[in-house]
Amino acid sequence: MALSGQRIVIIGGSSGMGLASARAVSAAGAAVTIASSDQARLKAALAGLPDSCDGAVVNTRNEADVAALFDRVGELDHVVYTAGDTVRPQPLADLPLDTARDLFEVRFWGAVAAVKHAARRVRPGGSIVLTSGTVAVRPAPGTALAAAGAAAVEGLTRGLAAELAPVRVNAVRPGAIRTPLWDPVPEPRRAELFATLADRTLTKSIGEADQIAAAHLYLMENRFVTGTVLTVDGGSILAGG
Ligand SMILES: NC(=O)c1ccc[n+]([C@@H]2O[C@H](COP(=O)([O-])OP(=O)(O)OC[C@H]3O[C@@H](n4cnc5c(N)ncnc54)[C@H](OP(=O)(O)O)[C@@H]3O)[C@@H](O)[C@H]2O)c1
């Protein structure tokens, strides 16, 4: 298998898409380090993963944390960055500028820090996979900053693919995916929201974290793919969702 014996770091690997990827790549024979900021969450995630996985507490708001992670790991084959905190839709007029700037901190600047400290350690044939979102291309009112952040990640992906070649750099652009990111929305509102979002896709479904993990695997394994933003959204962009 292409990933057998490879070393993979997943930042954001304690939950949702990152955790699903940790499961998938370890099943494909890779040694995996998952990283996230909350020790308890990390421990709970590791308990459900094979012994070939370890964990590191890393807050990607702190460059020193990120640097220490890659110093410790050393040479590696792939990095997946799925770290992201909860963002509530808010019109720009109501958004203090510091809060607006902060929306970029984990999703964009955290990814920048990760690539900065990981890139020189990626072995030949290796890759980096970042995360944007369909909000980049189909924003709703109240999501202008989230849209800008996701679009910035996509621009970063193309720029870094050119700059870091032959290291490959790609991004996954997920639609609505059922993960713990949505837990702050209480039931039954969450179920209603998922039904509405599913209705706005061509597949009439909400995505599952495993489907994003499959996209991560494809981008890691296919050595002819770089600078690509892979949309995994049930056709929501096409459907006008
Ligand atoms: N789910 C969706 O519908 C959807 C759609 C489009 C895009 N996205 C984006 O996809 C990414 C992954 O989402 P998900 O649904 O898998 O979310 P999730 O289940 O909430 O997982 C997010 C991960 O990020 C980690 N994290 C948060 N802040 C961090 C920090 N400062 N430093 C390090 N790690 C941090 C979390 O762990 P700790 O809490 O332990 O730090 C967790 O492991 C996010 O950027 C999200 O915005 C999600």
From TrEMBL:
UniProt-listed InterPro entries: NAD(P)-bd_dom_sf (IPR036291), SDR_DHRS6-like (IPR051122), SDR_fam (IPR002347)
Pfam families: adh_short_C2 (PF13561)
Sorted UniProt keywords: Oxidoreductase
Keyword Oxidoreductase: yes
SUPFAM superfamilies on file: NAD(P)-binding Rossmann-fold domains
Family: Belongs to the short-chain dehydrogenases/reductases (SDR) family.
Protein name as annotated: SDR family oxidoreductase
Source species: Actinacidiphila acididurans
